[in-house]
């Protein structure tokens, strides 16, 4: 494909059939990346002083000169995926705005000219170097004499990294991210707004999605190009048109009024470089495309091509309610392709363990003539371990630790308690036991219970971890090595003999962190405790010696959360560096690093089968990662604030999430869709837990309440036909009040942790706030 570019200063139109035809010009093969896929284009440039800025823009997208043979192998993406591909078949808007020529004709500074010349010389375009140098009026030795000086002066540290003998082209390029007249920005935006307000109601809601990303990018371009007064006026005029759930982002955006404010802002950088995803029906998309083509609104067109991803679907346009339910994240909605990978959400087959009879059962069998005591029906562990779930991963998909004898004994105890478990439901709600931390002036930041509910641990802002026994059995340390040598290792009660009664106490304090402790997690066998801290480390503590065994260092910033795998051995961590890490207790370095979030990872959770981990982030998205290969297999959007808690259903099929927006969202993992929204909390939802059989979902919030929801009804009422809809969305019922089973208020204690015991007693914990 040949594109003929008229740059306005050297008035010439050039036609060429081969790259060898050059008359006072240059033919360059470049590869330009647009919103979808790649296309090879051949561009004819006429160089003079006015073209320096255009060449720099080409340099940013050029990964090097593309060979003619290589161009033949480049293929386009399917035509229905993105904005750019849909335009490929029925005409494209011009790539340069009407004001580009006037802007390009302004004198450029010395640094820019040298950067262009260095770039051309680097690619062996000597003839073009001479043409541009003569038109710019530079002496022949300008590159040699001024190259090194301009490198350090104009580009700073980035230029030094690229080499001391040439300016950093990328740094110079960033100053030319737009070519439009700043006065016309409000005109462009207002014109699009008026058009969208006049379209049919069925299209208006979908097209209104473009307002927020366009507003942000246009404002940032004005700020970056030092149009401070125009940027301020633009912000004040149109910020009120944005959706209310972007309020926090807009407050941060308003503080960026100078280019210097934008430097070092990683979240802003991610927003600029990642594509904001919009899901729009084909009819609505055609309306928008036709409008931009007719009006030749090139400034908006350029932003859409560079920063937006239009995910087009066939079908009727979505309603305002459906769009609002899925909107709100930092990067828009998730692409439909992101949630199409197969997820093995089923449970692993439990090992065959014979359940010994209780003393009561033995007596019943030995007494002749008397009826045997009827055993309660076994569920969960007993029944599910007999069959292999068809949706479960292979037992050997990831290596899991082998069961020790102590683990088998604990499984037996679990199965025995499961026979005495209370069956919960709307007519049989759980009892709730609340643990209030009084006088917690150290600042309680995290809580966890052991699976058997015998221990509770708290992380505090004074960098300590405290462990309590919630049973009459006190906490004891193992005896010293000298005393252990005196013990008869063959005795039946050797596990009791190794404990030192002199150290018995109701609580223990663990010292080691140098910053507030934000996450803690007990191992399934109750022998270890994990803690994550602001100091960037995760520590593994022994609950036999109450000492730190390992300090895991990999995060460079605070670690907000950590959690053990349900099978032990593995654990997950996430923090301010926006990367989740998978660890094994016997490795100093992480086994996997899960990168993709655009802001802090605030909570982590293992899937019940240990093959997947879920992460919630301040970018208002939830991601599900495959432990085996590190791939992101699900992206869920819909929350309007940072996500603080995640909980998988016991069968592994569903996920619940809570955030600062006070909502609890329910997700179907297999289909990758939101299937429910629970409203009622008035503050951050800080903890979520399903009952042992999944009938009840409990939510704890900073509004000092515990709420119980009918999870069975929420999941059973789903219409499975909706899951196969081509649009990738379903209609959510507003039935929160029907699903709410009970609300329980504390006097003045925010609920920061919930836990169901093996018999379905609900435990809650928080620090009293007088």
Helix content: 25-40%
**How many E strands?**
34
Q: Strands of the biggest beta sheet: in what spatial order?
A: 7-8-9-12
Helix/strand-derived category reads: alpha+beta
Average the pLDDT over all residues and give the rounded result. 77
| N-end to C-end Cα span | 72 Å
Q: Can you tell me the overall shape? A: globular
Q: Give the biggest beta sheet.
A: 4 strands, antiparallel
- Please tell me how large the radius of gyration is: 31 Å
Treating each run of at least 4 consecutive H or I residues as one helix, how many helices?
Answer: 25
Q: What is the beta-strand fraction?
A: 25-35%
Q: Which regions have little confidence, pLDDT < 50, spanning 5+ residues?
A: 1-108, 145-177, 360-385
Pfam family, one: WD40
InterPro entries: LisH, TFIID_NTD2, TFIID_NTD2_sf, WD40/YVTN_repeat-like_dom_sf, WD40_PAC1, WD40_repeat_CS, WD40_repeat_dom_sf, WD40_rpt
GO molecular function, one term: RNA polymerase II general transcription initiation factor activity
Domain TFIID subunit TAF5 NTD2: 181-308
Throw out a few tags for this protein.
transcription, four-stranded antiparallel β-sheet, disordered N terminus, 26% strand, alpha+beta, globular, Transcription initiation factor TFIID subunit 5, WD repeat, WD40/YVTN_repeat-like_dom_sf, 770 residues
Task: Chart the SSEs and their pairings.
Blueprint: E1 2-4, E2 26-33, E3 38-45, H1 52-61, H2 68-72, H3 83-88, H4 100-104, H5 110-122, H6 126-136, H7 142-162, H8 169-173, H9 185-198, H10 201-207, H11 211-224, H12 228-238, H13 247-254, H14 259-262, H15 266-273, E4 276-281, H16 282-295, H17 298-307, E5 308-313, H18 320-326, H19 359-366, H20 381-384, H21 405-418, E6 432-437, E7 444-449, E8 455-460, E9 465-469, E10 475-478, H22 481-484, H23 494-497, E11 499-505, E12 507-510, E13 517-522, E14 528-533, E15 537-542, E16 547-553, E17 559-564, E18 570-575, E19 579-584, E20 592-595, E21 601-606, E22 612-617, E23 621-626, E24 632-637, E25 643-648, E26 654-659, E27 664-668, E28 673-678, E29 685-690, E30 696-701, E31 705-710, H24 711-716, H25 736-739, E32 740-745, E33 753-756, E34 762-767
Parallel strand pairs: 1-3, 4-5, 6-34
Antiparallel strand pairs: 2-3, 7-8, 8-9, 9-12, 10-11, 13-14, 14-15, 15-16, 17-18, 18-19, 19-20, 21-22, 22-23, 23-24, 25-26, 26-27, 27-28, 29-30, 30-31, 31-32, 33-34
Helix pairs in contact: 1-5, 5-6, 5-7, 10-16, 11-12, 11-17
């Amino acid at each position: 494909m040949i594109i003929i570019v008229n740059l306005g200063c050297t008035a010439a139109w050039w036609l060429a059939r081969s790259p060898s035809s050059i008359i006072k010009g240059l033919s360059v093969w470049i590869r330009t990346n647009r919103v979808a896929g790649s296309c090879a284009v051949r561009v004819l440039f006429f160089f003079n002083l006015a073209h320096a800025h255009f060449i720099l823009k080409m340099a940013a997208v050029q990964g090097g000169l593309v060979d003619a043979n290589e161009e033949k192998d480049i293929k386009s993406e399917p035509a229905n995926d993105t904005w750019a591909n849909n335009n490929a078949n029925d005409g494209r808007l011009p790539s340069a705005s009407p004001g580009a020529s006037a802007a390009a004709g302004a004198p450029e500074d010395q640094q820019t000219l040298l950067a262009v010349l260095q770039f051309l010389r680097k690619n062996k375009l000597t003839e073009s170097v001479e043409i541009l140098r003569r038109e710019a009026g530079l002496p022949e030795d300008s590159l040699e004499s001024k190259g090194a000086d301009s490198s350090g002066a104009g580009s700073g540290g980035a230029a030094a990294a690229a080499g001391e003998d040439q300016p950093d082209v990328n740094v110079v390029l960033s100053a030319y991210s737009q070519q439009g007249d700043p006065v016309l920005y409000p005109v462009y935006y207002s014109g699009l707004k008026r058009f969208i307000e006049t379209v049919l109601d069925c299209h208006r809601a979908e097209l209104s999605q473009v307002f927020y990303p366009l507003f942000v990018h246009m404002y940032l371009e004005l700020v970056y190009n030092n149009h401070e007064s125009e940027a301020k006026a633009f912000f004040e005029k149109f910020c009120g048109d944005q959706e209310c759930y972007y309020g926090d982002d807009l407050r941060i955006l308003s503080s960026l009024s100078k280019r210097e404010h934008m430097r070092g802002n990683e979240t802003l950088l991610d927003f600029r470089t990642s594509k904001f995803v919009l899901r729009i029906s084909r009819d609505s998309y055609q309306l928008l495309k036709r409008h931009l083509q007719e009006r030749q609104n090139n400034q908006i067109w350029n932003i859409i091509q560079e920063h937006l991803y239009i995910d087009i679907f066939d079908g009727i346009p979505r309603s305002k309610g459906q769009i609002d339910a899925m909107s709100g994240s930092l990067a828009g909605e998730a692409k439909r392709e992101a949630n199409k990978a197969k997820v093995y959400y089923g449970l692993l087959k439990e090992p065959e363990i014979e359940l010994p009879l209780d003393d009561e059962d033995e007596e019943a069998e030995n007494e002749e003539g008397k009826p045997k005591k009827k055993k309660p029906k076994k569920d969960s562990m007993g029944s599910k371990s007999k069959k292999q779930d068809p949706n479960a991963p292979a037992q050997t998909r990831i290596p899991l630790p082998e069961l020790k004898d102590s683990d088998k004994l604990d499984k037996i105890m679990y199965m025995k308690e499961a026979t005495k478990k209370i069956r919960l439901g709307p007519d049989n709600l759980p009892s709730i036991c609340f643990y209030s931390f009084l006088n917690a002036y150290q600042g309680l930041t995290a809580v966890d219970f052991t699976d058997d509910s015998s221990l509770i641990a708290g992380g505090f802002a004074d960098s300590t971890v405290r462990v309590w026994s919630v049973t009459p059995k006190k906490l004891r340390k193992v005896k010293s090595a000298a005393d252990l040598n005196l013990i008869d290792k063959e005795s039946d009660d050797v596990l009791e003999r190794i404990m030192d009664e002199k150290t018995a106490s109701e609580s223990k304090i663990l010292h080691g962190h140098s910053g507030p402790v934000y996450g803690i997690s007990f191992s399934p066998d109750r022998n270890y405790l994990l803690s994550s801290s602001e100091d960037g480390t995760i520590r593994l503590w022994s609950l036999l010696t109450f000492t730190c065994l390992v300090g895991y260092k990999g995060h460079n910033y605070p670690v907000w959360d950590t959690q053990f795998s349900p099978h032990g051995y593995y654990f997950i961590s996430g923090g301010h560096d926006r990367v989740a890490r998978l660890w094994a207790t016997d490795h100093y370095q992480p086994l996997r690093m899960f990168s993709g979030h655009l802001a802090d990872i605030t909570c982590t959770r293992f899937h019940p089968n240990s093959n997947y981990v879920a992460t919630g982030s301040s970018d208002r998205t939830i991601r599900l990662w495959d432990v085996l290969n590190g791939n992101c297999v699900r992206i869920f959007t819909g929350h309007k604030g940072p996500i603080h808690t995640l909980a998988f259903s016991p069968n592994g099929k569903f996920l619940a999430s809570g955030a600062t927006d006070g909502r609890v969202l329910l997700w179907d993992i297999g289909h990758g869709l939101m299937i429910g929204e629970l409203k009622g909390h008035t503050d951050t939802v800080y903890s979520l837990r399903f009952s042992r059989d999944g009938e009840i979902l409990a939510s704890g919030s900073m509004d000092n309440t515990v709420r119980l929801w009918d999870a069975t009804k929420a999941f059973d009422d789903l219409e499975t036909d909706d899951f196969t809809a081509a649009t990738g969305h379903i209609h959510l019922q507003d039935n929160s009040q029907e699903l709410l089973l009970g609300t329980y208020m504390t006097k003045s204690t925010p609920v920061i942790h919930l836990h169901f015991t093996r018999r379905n007693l609900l435990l809650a914990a928080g620090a009293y706030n007088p």
